[in-house]
Amino acid sequence: MEKFKCLIIEDEPLAAEILQDYIAQVPLLVCTGTCRDALYAMQVLQQETVDVIFLDIHLPGIKGLDFLRTLQHPPKVIITTAYREYALDGYELSVVDYLLKPIHFNRFISAVNKLKVNERSLLPPSTNSSLPTLPDAQHLLVTVNKKKIKIYLRDILFIESRKEYVHIALPGKTIITRLGLTEMETLLPGEKFLRIHRSFIIALDKLDAFSATAIDVNGQSLPVGRKYREQVQQVLKDKGRAV
After folding, report:
1. By C-alpha distance, which of 79, 28, 27 is closest to 53?
2. Closest CA to 83 of 224, 182, 201
């Protein structure tokens, strides 16, 4: 069975790992590599045959869409980004689809199904029915001591930023991985998680108590940052928990 070669161009390690995990679950896709910037991607495209690019927009150096404009005969492109405002630019460049982070697996499959090869869907219905179906992204893959660790979203209590690392608090243990809190925020479903401080993200369903300046999660009192206070109060109000 011929597999379609995919290249991930993404500077966020965790986002790249999630795409690799999704690609591995689709029988007709294979990930040939990942690139953290467009210059490295240019070299790869000159040396290897690539059928599909998963392209982030905000890359170091040359931005994703500017990189795409430089390609005379680009492969099929699926945009992966946390920013809505470039969607029109992307479609003007004939991208296959425009995925907003955090990317859920079902949405990923929908984008893959838009790929056309010889006027046929890349994933025919018979293939689609054998794929796992998830209501949303149920886990993250993070790197700890060069190993990939699966963390289920339902287990996360809160996430704390400590310089170049984040501490992911789970029942009975803490996972430490080298990642920025903003990067982590883009990968979490907004309806389930909330940034309350420059150093903290909480799981909304793990909230025990709250005030205007602090939120209690699993027996720990976490501060609500001044710049986040209005947004936090609005989210809790919308959920029937007005401060």
Report:
1. 79
2. 182
CATH topology of domain 139-238: OB fold (Dihydrolipoamide Acetyltransferase, E2P) (2.40.50)
Q: Which amino acid is at 88?
A: L
Model confidence pLDDT, tens digit, residues 135-153: 345 788 888 888 888 899 9
Residue whose pair of structure tokens reads 């210059």 in the numeric block: 39
Per-residue pLDDT tens digits for 155-192 = 999 999 998 889 999 999 999 998 888 878 877 877 78
| Domain residue limits, the chain | 4-128, 139-238
Phi, psi of 242 (to 5 degrees): -55, 135
- How far apart, in whole angstroms, are the C-alpha atoms of residue 76 and residue 114? 10
CATH topology of domain 4-128: Rossmann fold (3.40.50)
